[in-house]
Amino acid sequence: MLRAGINVLEEGIGVRIETDVVMGDQPINLMPDMPVEVEEIEAAMAR
C-alpha cells in the first residue's frame, strides 16, 4: 500500500490517499481508476 497525506492541525483536518499495489517483477495497481490528482478529486466531490 502506498500512502500520501497531509494534516492541517490548526484546522483539525487530514486527508490521506492510499493506493493498493501488488509488488513484484511487474507491479499491479489494484485501484487504477481512483482519482488522485487535485482536479480529479474535486470533480468526484462535486458529483
Structure overview:
- The structure is a single chain.
- The protein is of the alpha+beta class and 47 residues long.
- The chain has one domain (2-46).
- The chain has 1 helix and 4 strands.
- It has one helix at 38-46; strands at residues 2-8, 13-19, 21-22, 28-29.
- A two-stranded antiparallel sheet has the order 1-2. A two-stranded antiparallel sheet has the order 3-4.
- The protein is flat, with a radius of gyration of 13 Å.
- The chain starts with a strand and ends with a helix.
- The mean pLDDT is 85.
**Low-confidence runs:** none
- The beta-strand count equals 4
Note the gap between the termini. Answer: 27 Å
Please tell me the total number of domains: 1
Radius of gyration: 13 Å
Walk across the major sheet and give the strand order: 1-2
Helix count equals 1
Mean pLDDT: 85
Helix content estimate: 10-25%
In N-to-C order, the SSE pattern is EEEEH
Largest sheet: 2 strands, antiparallel
Overall outline = flat
Q: What labels describe this entry?
A:
19% helix, 4 strands, two-stranded antiparallel sheet, alpha+beta, 47 residues
Compact overview of the structure:
This protein is α+β, with helices and mostly antiparallel strands. Helices cover 19% and strands 38% of the residues.
Please write out the topology.
Layout: E1 2-8, E2 13-19, E3 21-22, E4 28-29, H1 38-46
Antiparallel strand pairs: 1-2, 3-4
